[in-house]
C-alpha cells in the first residue's frame, strides 16, 4: 500500500524525519521528495492509495483536491470507486485544529468547505495611509508604502524577506517612527514579525493531536479495522478539551467535485463548428455560447478547422468545460474521438 | 532616509526565535513558568505491566514529547522497565540496538536530542517501590503524570499527591480508547483567554473622565470630515442619551435595539461620495455588544464566596488581590476598567485621545485595587511591593506568601471578569465511591461514557485475574463473559446495590476484549498531545484545564468530557 505525505518544509527537516522513521520500521519504505506539490502531475499522484496532507495554505489544499477529483473515472455517469484516492487533511492554528477524510466524488471535498477557512485580516488603505490607530496599521504602512518607496536594501526592488532579521528590524524601526508620529504605542519586534509573515501561533501539542487523528484515519482507511471518520472533526483545547465530529455535506454546486463529466463523441474529421452545433442542438444541453479548453476562447476563424487539426489541443480524452449563460456552472465533457457522429445521451 | 541599517538593535535571542510561535500564545511569563517546571512521569512496575505499557512506553513518550519540544524545564522518568522485543516493535523512541537496556534511558536520550534546553533524569525504580520507601519523593514536582497505571498503585499515588498538593494527570491508552483524568486541589487562573470577550466601553455608566470626554463632543457642530471620523463609542453614547430621554431607560430587547439602530442611522450625514459613514455603520453593528457591560459577572461573585477568611501573610497573592477587588467593587459598584478598546474608524488623534481616557482610568483603578489589597491584609508582615513597572518581556513572577506586585494587580484587573478557580476532586475519592454518570435520564449506552465504565471494569478484571480481558488470544471468549460480570458488578455498586441504571451493550464488551490493552501509537499520540497541553495549562495557569475527565474514542473520532 502506498501513501503520500505532503507538507512544506526545509530539506533538512524532511530528511531528518525520514531518517528517524526509516531506521526504526523496516517494512516501511519512505521516499522524500523535496519540491512543490505542483511539480508533479496527476499521473504521478495516481500511484498512491491514500494521500495525507499537512499543508500550510488553503491554495495548496485546493490544488491537491482538484488533482484527485480530476483523477476520478465515471462509467455511464456512475463513479468508478476504484478511482477514488482518499485524502486525509489536517490543519492547526494555536489551540484549534481540524482533521477530515475526503473521498473525492463521494464526500464533501476541500472546495465544498471553503467557507470553513477563516478570512484573512486586512486593513483599508486609507487607514494605513492617513489614519493609523493600531500598531498593526503602522507596520502595514511600512510594508506596503514605505518599503517600496525607500527600497532600503538596494538592488532591483528587493522584496521583503520575512525570514531576514535585517529586513524585519528595518521595518520594526520605521514602524516605531510612524507610530511615534501618531502617539501610538505597542509596536514590538514580535508584532512586526507577526504582521509581515502572517504568523499563526502554533504549539507542539495541537500538532501532535491533529497528526495523530490523521494517522488514525489513515490506519482505518487502509485496514478497515474501524469505520473512518465521516467526515470532519474540529478540535479546541483552549478551554477544557472540545471535539465535534460531523458529516459535512457535499455541495451540489461545488465547482470542483459536483461536475460529473458527460461523454461527447465526435469524429476527428468533424469541425469545431460541428461540435458547437451538436451542443447547441442537443435537447439535453441547448448550449448557447462558445466552448473553450484551457480558457482559450475559440475565435471565429478557427471554427471551420477540423478537430484533429485545430491548435486547441483537442484529442481523445480531453476535458471540455462548456460555459453557458443560462447556468452559473460549467458542464464538463470528456471528448471521445471516434467514427460515429453522435452526442451520446448520458445516463442521469 | 538611512542607507543600509546597521546590525539590528532588536535581534532576537535564540530562545525567543525558537519558541516564537508558542510565545504568542502564553507569553514570556508563561514560558518562564514552563522552563522552571519539573514534571515526573511514572507508571506501574515492569513486573506488573504487560509489555509495552509502563511510563516509558509509547504513551509516556508521547506525553513527554509535547512537553520537551516547547521547553519544559526538567523531566524525571520513573521506570524500572528494560527494553523488550515488544518495545522494539511498537515504540519509535527506543533504538534498535537497545534490547535489554533501561527503557527510560532510551526514551530520555531520544527526547532530549529534540530539545537540548531540557534536562532529564531517570530513576530506575518502580512507583510501587517509591511509594513505600520514599513517600516524599513526589513533593517537589510541578505535575506528576501516571501512565497506564494499575488501579491499586494509582489510588495510593492519588492520595499521596492530594496530601502534598501536587497536581496529578492520569493518562491511559487502551486499544482505540484514550483516557485523561486531571487531579488538582486548587488552581487559580488569571489569564483564562476567553474566546469572545465583550468590549469594556462603559456606555451605560461612564466614569467621570469618560462622561466629561463624551460631553465635550458636539456632533452637530463638527465638520463633515470630523463627523465621519468620530469614534463610534461617542456616537452610541450621544444617541443613547436621546433614547433615554424619550424612553426613560436604555434599549432593552432586540426590538428596541433595532429601533435604536435606526435612530443612529438617521443621524448619519451624506458623504459626498454617496457612501455611508463607516463610523456610524460600526456604531449600529456594535449596539448588540456594547450595551450590557455594567453587570458584575456571577462568576466573580462565586469567587468572592471562596475568599479565605481571615486573610493572612500566607494567603497566596491571587486571593489577596481578589480581596482588594472585592473592596473596590463594594465602593465603586463597578469593575475596574480594563483599558482595552477595539479599533474604531476614526482619525488617529481622536482615537488615541479616546483610548487614553480608558487607559488612564484603568491605571487609576488598578492602583486603587492594590491599596485595598494592602488594607485587607491585616498582619504587618504581609508586605506588598511596588516593583518598578516590569516590561512584558521580563515575565511575571508569581509571588509566594504575601508578595503582591503592581503588574499582577494590573493583570488581574484587566481580566477581572474572566478570573477562574478550579477546585478539583481526587481520583481516590472517585474510584472508591459511587460514580454518577447521568442519573438514569441520559441514554448512555450509545455514548462514549460506556468506555469509562469498561476501563473501570477492565481494572476490576485485572485485579482479579492478573491480566487484561482479551489479552490472551486463547481465552477471549471466556474473558468476554468475565468482563461482563465485572461491568455488572460495578454498575450495581454505583446504583446503590439495586439494578444498574443503564446497560452496557454486548458489542462494546466484545470490542473491549478485542482491544486487549493494545497500544496503538496514533491513539497514544492523541492522548499524549492532549495531556501535555493540560499539563502546560496547570503549570502556566493560563487557559482553562479540563475538569476533570476526557474519554477519547479513536474508532469513532469522538470525545467526551465529564466531571467526576
TrEMBL record, chain A:
<dbReference type="GO" id="GO:0019781">
    <property type="term" value="F:NEDD8 activating enzyme activity"/>
</dbReference>
<dbReference type="InterPro" id="IPR045886">
    <property type="entry name" value="ThiF/MoeB/HesA"/>
</dbReference>
<keyword id="KW-0833">Ubl conjugation pathway</keyword>
<comment type="function">
    <text>Catalytic subunit of the dimeric E1 enzyme, which activates NEDD8.</text>
</comment>
<keyword id="KW-0436">Ligase</keyword>
<feature type="domain" description="E2 binding">
    <location>
        <begin position="264"/>
        <end position="338"/>
    </location>
</feature>
<dbReference type="GO" id="GO:0005737">
    <property type="term" value="C:cytoplasm"/>
</dbReference>
<dbReference type="Pfam" id="PF00899">
    <property type="entry name" value="ThiF"/>
</dbReference>
<comment type="similarity">
    <text>Belongs to the ubiquitin-activating E1 family. UBA3 subfamily.</text>
</comment>
<keyword id="KW-0067">ATP-binding</keyword>
<dbReference type="GO" id="GO:0045116">
    <property type="term" value="P:protein neddylation"/>
</dbReference>
<protein>
    <recommendedName>
        <fullName>NEDD8-activating enzyme E1 catalytic subunit</fullName>
        <ecNumber>6.2.1.64</ecNumber>
    </recommendedName>
</protein>
<comment type="pathway">
    <text>Protein modification; protein neddylation.</text>
</comment>
<dbReference type="GO" id="GO:0005524">
    <property type="term" value="F:ATP binding"/>
</dbReference>
<dbReference type="InterPro" id="IPR000594">
    <property type="entry name" value="ThiF_NAD_FAD-bd"/>
</dbReference>
<dbReference type="InterPro" id="IPR014929">
    <property type="entry name" value="E2-binding"/>
</dbReference>
<dbReference type="InterPro" id="IPR037078">
    <property type="entry name" value="NEDD8-ac_enz1_catalyticsu_C"/>
</dbReference>
<dbReference type="InterPro" id="IPR033127">
    <property type="entry name" value="UBQ-activ_enz_E1_Cys_AS"/>
</dbReference>
<dbReference type="GO" id="GO:0005634">
    <property type="term" value="C:nucleus"/>
</dbReference>
<feature type="active site" description="Glycyl thioester intermediate">
    <location>
        <position position="126"/>
    </location>
</feature>
<dbReference type="InterPro" id="IPR035985">
    <property type="entry name" value="Ubiquitin-activating_enz"/>
</dbReference>
<keyword id="KW-0547">Nucleotide-binding</keyword>
UniProtKB/TrEMBL annotation, chain B:
<comment type="pathway">
    <text>Protein modification; protein neddylation.</text>
</comment>
<dbReference type="Pfam" id="PF00899">
    <property type="entry name" value="ThiF"/>
</dbReference>
<dbReference type="InterPro" id="IPR035985">
    <property type="entry name" value="Ubiquitin-activating_enz"/>
</dbReference>
<dbReference type="GO" id="GO:0005737">
    <property type="term" value="C:cytoplasm"/>
</dbReference>
<protein>
    <recommendedName>
        <fullName>NEDD8-activating enzyme E1 regulatory subunit</fullName>
    </recommendedName>
</protein>
<comment type="similarity">
    <text>Belongs to the ubiquitin-activating E1 family. ULA1 subfamily.</text>
</comment>
<feature type="domain" description="THIF-type NAD/FAD binding fold">
    <location>
        <begin position="19"/>
        <end position="556"/>
    </location>
</feature>
<keyword id="KW-0833">Ubl conjugation pathway</keyword>
<dbReference type="InterPro" id="IPR045886">
    <property type="entry name" value="ThiF/MoeB/HesA"/>
</dbReference>
<dbReference type="InterPro" id="IPR000594">
    <property type="entry name" value="ThiF_NAD_FAD-bd"/>
</dbReference>
<dbReference type="GO" id="GO:0019781">
    <property type="term" value="F:NEDD8 activating enzyme activity"/>
</dbReference>
<dbReference type="GO" id="GO:0045116">
    <property type="term" value="P:protein neddylation"/>
</dbReference>
<dbReference type="InterPro" id="IPR030667">
    <property type="entry name" value="APP-BP1"/>
</dbReference>
Amino acid at each position: 500500500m502506498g501513501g503520500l505525505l505532503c507538507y512544506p518544509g526545509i530539506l533538512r527537516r524532511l530528511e531528518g524525519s525520514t531518517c528517524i522513521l526509516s531506521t526504526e520500521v523496516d517494512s516501511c519504505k519512505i521516499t522524500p521528495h523535496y519540491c512543490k506539490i505542483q511539480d508533479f502531475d496527476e499521473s504521478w499522484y495516481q500511484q498512491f492509495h491514500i494521500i495525507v496532507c499537512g499543508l500550510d495554505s488553503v491554495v495548496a489544499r485546493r490544488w491537491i483536491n482538484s488533482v484527485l477529483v480530476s483523477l476520478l473515472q465515471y462509467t455511464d455517469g456512475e463513479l468508478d470507486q476504484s478511482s477514488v484516492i482518499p485524502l486525509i487533511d489536517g490543519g492547526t492554528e494555536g489551540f484549534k485544529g481540524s482533521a477530515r477524510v475526503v473521498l473525492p466524488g463521494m464526500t464533501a471535498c476541500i472546495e465544498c468547505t471553503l467557507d470553513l477557512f477563516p478570512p484573512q485580516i486586512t486593513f483599508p488603505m486609507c487607514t494605513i495611509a492617513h489614519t493609523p490607530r493600531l500598531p498593526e496599521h503602522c507596520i502595514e504602512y511600512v510594508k506596503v508604502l514605505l518599503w517600496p518607496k525607500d527600497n532600503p536594501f538596494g538592488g532591483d526592488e528587493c522584496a521583503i524577506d520575512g525570514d531576514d532579521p535585517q529586513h524585519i528590524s528595518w521595518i520594526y524601526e520605521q514602524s516605531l517612527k510612524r507610530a511615534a508620529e501618531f502617539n501610538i504605542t505597542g509596536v514590538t519586534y514580535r508584532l512586526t514579525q507577526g504582521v509581515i509573515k502572517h504568523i499563526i501561533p502554533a504549539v507542539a501539542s495541537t500538532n501532535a493531536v491533529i497528526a495523530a487523528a490523521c494517522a488514525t484515519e489513515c490506519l482505518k482507511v487502509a485496514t478497515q479495522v474501524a469505520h473512518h471518520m465521516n467526515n470532519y472533526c474540529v478540535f479546541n483545547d483552549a478551554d477544557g478539551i472540545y471535539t465535534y465530529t460531523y458529516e459535512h455535506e457535499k455541495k451540489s454546486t461545488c465547482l470542483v467535485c459536483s461536475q460529473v463529466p458527460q461523454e461527447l463523441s465526435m469524429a476527428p474529421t468533424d469541425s469545431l463548428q460541428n461540435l458547437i452545433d451538436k451542443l447547441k442542438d442537443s435537447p439535453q444541453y441547448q448550449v448557447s455560447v462558445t466552448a473553450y479548453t484551457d480558457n482559450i476562447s475559440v475565435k471565429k476563424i478557427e471554427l471551420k478547422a477540423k478537430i484533429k487539426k485545430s491548435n486547441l489541443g483537442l484529442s481523445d480524452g480531453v476535458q471540455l468545460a462548456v460555459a453557458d449563460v443560462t447556468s452559473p456552472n460549467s458542464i464538463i465533457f470528456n471528448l471521445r474521438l471516434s467514427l460515429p457522429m453522435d452526442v451520446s445521451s448520458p445516463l442521469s | 532616509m538611512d542607507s543600509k541599517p546597521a546590525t539590528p538593535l532588536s535581534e532576537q535571542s535564540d530562545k525567543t526565535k525558537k519558541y516564537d510561535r508558542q510565545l504568542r500564545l502564553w507569553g514570556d511569563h508563561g514560558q518562564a513558568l514552563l522552563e522552571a517546571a519539573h514534571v515526573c512521569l511514572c507508571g506501574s512496575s515492569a513486573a506488573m505491566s504487560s509489555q509495552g505499557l509502563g511510563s516509558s512506553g509509547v504513551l509516556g513518550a508521547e506525553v513527554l514529547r509535547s512537553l520537551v519540544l516547547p521547553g519544559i524545564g526538567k523531566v524525571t522518568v520513573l521506570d524500572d522497565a528494560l527494553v523488550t522485543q515488544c518495545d522494539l516493535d511498537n515504540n519509535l523512541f527506543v533504538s534498535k540496538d537497545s534490547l535489554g537496556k533501561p527503557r527510560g534511558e532510551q526514551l530520555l536520550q531520544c527526547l532530549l536530542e529534540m530539545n537540548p534546553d531540557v534536562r532529564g533524569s531517570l530513576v530506575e525504580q518502580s512507583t510501587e517501590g517509591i511509594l513505600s520507601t520514599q513517600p516524599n519523593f513526589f513533593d517537589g514536582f510541578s505535575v506528576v503524570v501516571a501512565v497506564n497505571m494499575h488501579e491499586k498503585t494509582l489510588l495510593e499515588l492519588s492520595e499521596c499527591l492530594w496530601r502534598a498538593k501536587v497536581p496529578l494527570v492520569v493518562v491511559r491508552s487502551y486499544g482505540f480508547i484514550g483516557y485523561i483524568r486531571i487531579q488538582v486541589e486548587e488552581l487559580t487562573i488569571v489569564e483564562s483567554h476567553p474566546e469572545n470577550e465583550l468590549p469594556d466601553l462603559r456606555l451605560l455608566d461612564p466614569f467621570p473622565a469618560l462622561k466629561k470626554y463624551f460631553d465635550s463632543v458636539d456632533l452637530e457642530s463638527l465638520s463633515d470630515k470630523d463627523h465621519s471620523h468620530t469614534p463610534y463609542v461617542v456616537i452610541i453614547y450621544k444617541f443613547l442619551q436621546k433614547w433615554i430621554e424619550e424612553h426613560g431607560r436604555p434599549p432593552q430587547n432586540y426590538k428596541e435595539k433595532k429601533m435604536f439602530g435606526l435612530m443612529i442611522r438617521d443621524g448619519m450625514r451624506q458623504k459626498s461620495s454617496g457612501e455611508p459613514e463607516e463610523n456610524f455603520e460600526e456604531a449600529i453593528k456594535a449596539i448588540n455588544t456594547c450595551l450590557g457591560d455594567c453587570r458584575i459577572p456571577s462568576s466573580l461573585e462565586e469567587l468572592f464566596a471562596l475568599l479565605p477568611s481571615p486573610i493572612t501573610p500566607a494567603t497566596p497573592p491571587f486571593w489577596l488581590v481578589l480581596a482588594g477587588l472585592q473592596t473596590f467593587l463594594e465602593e465603586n459598584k463597578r469593575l475596574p476598567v480594563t483599558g482595552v478598546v477595539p479599533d474604531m474608524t476614526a482619525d488617529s488623534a481622536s482615537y488615541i485621545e479616546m483610548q487614553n481616557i480608558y487607559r488612564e482610568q484603568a491605571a487609576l483603578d488598578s492602583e486603587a485595587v492594590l491599596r485595598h489589597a494592602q488594607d485587607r491584609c491585616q498582619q504587618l508582615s504581609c508586605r506588598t511591593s511596588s516593583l518598578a513597572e516590569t516590561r512584558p518581556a521580563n515575565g511575571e513572577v508569581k509571588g509566594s506568601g504575601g508578595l503582591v506586585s503592581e503588574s499582577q494587580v494590573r493583570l488581574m484587573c484587566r481580566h477581572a471578569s474572566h478570573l477562574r478557580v478550579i477546585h478539583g476532586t481526587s481520583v481516590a475519592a472517585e474510584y472508591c465511591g459511587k460514580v454518577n454518570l447521568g442519573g438514569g435520564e441520559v441514554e448512555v449506552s450509545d455514548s462514549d461514557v460506556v468506555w469509562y465504565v469498561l476501563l473501570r471494569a477492565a481494572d476490576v478484571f485485572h485485579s482479579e485475574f492478573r491480566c487484561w480481558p482479551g489479552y490472551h488470544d486463547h481465552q477471549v471468549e471466556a474473558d468476554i463473559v468475565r468482563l461482563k460480570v465485572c461491568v455488572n458488578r460495578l454498575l450495581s455498586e454505583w446504583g446503590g446495590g439495586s439494578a444498574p441504571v443503564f446497560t452496557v451493550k454486548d458489542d462494546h464488551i466484545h470490542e473491549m476484549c478485542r482491544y486487549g490493552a493494545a497500544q496503538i501509537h496514533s491513539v497514544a499520540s492523541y492522548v499524549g498531545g492532549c495531556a501535555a497541553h493540560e499539563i502546560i495549562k496547570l503549570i502556566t495557569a493560563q487557559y482553562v484545564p479540563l475538569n476533570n475527565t476526557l474519554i477519547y474514542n479513536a474508532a469513532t473520532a469522538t470525545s467526551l468530557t465529564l466531571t467526576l
